[in-house]
Sequence to fold (548 residues):
Amino acid sequence: MTGSADSFAGLSRAGLAAFAAARADALGVVVAPGMTDEVIENLAVLQAHARVFLTAAAAVGADPAGRSDPEGAG
Amino acid sequence: MGPFADAVGIAADVRSGRVRATDVTRRALMRIRDLDRRINAFTAVFEAEALADADAIDRAQAEGRALGPLAGVPFAVKNLFDIAGRTTLAGAKIRLGGPAAIRDAALVARFRQAGAILVGALNMDEFAYGFVTENAHFGASRNPHDLTCIAGGSSGGSAAAVAAGLAPLTLGSDTNGSIRIPAGLCGVFGLKPTLGRLPVDGMFPFVRTLDHAGLFARTVEDLAVGYDAGTDADAPRITPRRDALLRLPLRAAVLGGWFRRGLTRPVVEALAAAADALRAGSDVVLAEAEAARSAAFCLTAFEGGRLHLADLSQRVADYDPAVGGRLLAGALSPEAVHQAALGFRARFTAQVLAAFEDHDVLLAPITLGPAPPIGQETMRLDGEEISIRKNLGIFTQPISFVGAPVIAAPVRTAGMPVGVQIIAAPGREDLAFAAAFQLAQRGVAVSPAPAGLGAVAPSVAQSVAREVTAHGRS
Fold:
């Protein structure tokens, strides 16, 4: 569950928690129980920043993630 | 020779034999021993080694051998630079007791080859991930201008040491603002050169695609001589061109838009003073600066986190609580966001380069305002409370993202220090130096001596004098 940049940017809070758990599993990382909330909080900050630059890129039609036609708009 | 003697003057005096490197070093060690218990800039002081190195310089001088441009100049380094025979801490408890470095970092070695005397290692945010140098393991570095305030970070010890007159030159690193922010808050000059211009070999990495090595000084001339000593042998030098750069007409502008958000009055006045002195033209707006800052934020978290993946899994409790969770979140963030950030970087770099087609230097704030108190966690921006640790770099991150050279210049103010960024196109350190020389000559850029630090206690002076005598007999 690595997903695209856009799908990460669109995750809900619950989605972020599920994403973090799946990523930790995939990477073999153990997140200490007491740290889960803090990690999700920091992921939410990263998500907010990702939205900012992904939106800026999309606004002028460029695709920093390297896809040729992210919106299917030609 | 006072505690604020400049590196250029010290080296000239040592080369000519007017003063001994041993005496200069002894005085620096005395001042460190006396004052650093209050400032906490140093995590280690190398008294015996420094005195031995200084003695070697004095013997070389007595024998008529050629001495380098930094002969006898005390310097200290952020503790993420390798020092042969010592463990490189990078501000982290988990590195205590680790293997010692086999050799000096390349930049440390170049300074030593130029005759500089290494007197110690300096405090920092853990793994350079922060802007405050409030380190949970090694304590907070205090701002010499107000000991209740932060020195900034992550190279906080480096800036505080120079500001307090503990060393005329120090080395630091800058990934997102870690030289420029502490330089501005402590009122000293800082240089973040073009990405890759100064060697990062032997510097503990934070974000490999963004890490810059750089330095701090109290004068532009010292910054130049330090930069010259650190660059490759075939790189163009600044010092021989000082007079020409002082006269060089410059096309300057101030960055608007994102870079004017939420500025406090001292910063507004500092920017205006620098702009006026350089006869800056109309503002330049980098339309995607905010997005670039966000992309740099994500790139930093991902690369920084991935570097620590194994330790985060096994020893996260041993990390600074302010750092571990951030690194872990970065490590878990998706590769796709990292790739997107890299893509955005290329695009924003093109925008910045275009701005330099019509300008030699661009001026920008370093921070929103002067140094906040130690322990304060948030600051206000546009009516919103935001984390200081995560947001002190809002004006520095877009610039390091494109690898452009920047001199952080302290601007004369009535209160606590603030500074401005002097930004040039990649590879054009000479233009940033030209602007800094000109601002200094016009009295706009000045590194103020902190008031109230006091003189060296007589007991410390006697103690170091005894050690120097003992060393001389050994």
Observations:
- Confidence is low (pLDDT under 50) at residues 468-474 of chain B.
- The two ends of chain B are 27 Å apart (CA to CA).
- Chain B has one domain: 7-473.
